[in-house]
Specification:
The longest helix has 26 residues. About 30% of the residues are buried. The chain is mainly alpha-helical. Helices cover about 60% and strands about 5% of the residues.
């Protein structure tokens, strides 16, 4: 049975949210950083309780969170073990946030940008076919909000940028595609943080966003797909220029 190599006093647990979430994050980070390897058994419940300083109920609830992410499995008489990575739910929003703490920024950003390049052009084409009037109007409002600072990035314009892209995913009418919103949002926010750096000062590509939306509103799937590809190419070019991608 694997020893707990990173015993932490309760005071050092991340205390955002409630305690079971903090415990779940602590254990998840140990899995994601390789402290607890796939195929190995976690320390015993008694050892974890001693190192984490929490109640048995709290620990068990935290472990259930990790079960839901596909990170661990528990069997009677076999203990709790780390599942192979193929079972991990990497697109879960908490998993995305946890991985940001243990994976090099360049690697994670490259993964997220690649997902955007695969997903968003097709999402734009679907939106051109299926978006309803209300969603198109909401996207137009988000686009307008992105421009309130003359192309400069502020917290409000960043939120509007995220809202535009999440609405685009939902507009296609495919619930599973819409479910990728957390992944797209994480990718977008990571890109925004870099492009908002004073040393980069890259303005929002308002014109290209508008061309995507115009194609969606005109019900032209091929044009919507191509305009979104151009927008993604602009994103990749920026991140490559500032050497943000691995």
């Amino acid at each position: 049975m694997q020893k707990d190599k990173t015993s932490l006093p309760a005071a050092s647990l991340p205390m955002r949210g409630n305690l079971k979430s903090a415990v779940a994050e602590t254990l998840a980070l140990r899995i994601l950083d390789g402290t607890y390897q796939p195929g190995t058994t976690l320390p015993t419940e008694a050892d974890l309780l001693g190192s984490l300083g929490v109640s048995r109920t709290c620990l068990r609830e935290a472990l259930q969170i990790l079960v839901g992410k596909g990170l661990i499995t528990s069997r009677p008489k076999h203990g709790t073990s780390v599942r192979p990575e193929v079972h991990w739910n990497f697109l879960d929003d908490q998993m995305l946030a946890w991985r940001q703490k243990v994976v090099p920024q360049g690697q994670l950003l490259a993964e997220l940008v690649a997902i955007r390049e695969m997903v968003e052009p097709e999402a734009a084409a679907l939106a051109a076919q299926n978006a309803d009037v209300q969603t198109i109007a909401a996207m137009r409002e988000a686009l307008d909000a992105m421009g309130i600072a003359d192309g400069n990035r502020t917290p409000a314009t960043q939120d509007a940028d995220v809202r535009f892209h999440r609405l685009l995913l939902a507009a296609g009418g495919n619930a599973l595609l819409s479910g990728l919103g957390a992944c797209i949002e994480n990718a977008l926010r990571a890109s925004i943080r870099i492009s908002s750096d004073p040393g980069v000062s890259d303005p929002i590509a308002l014109g290209q966003h508008a061309r995507v939306l115009d194609a969606v509103e005109a019900r032209e799937p091929e044009r919507a797909r191509e305009e979104m590809r151009k927008l993604m190419a602009m994103t990749r070019a920026l991140l490559t220029r500032v050497k943000a991608l691995d």
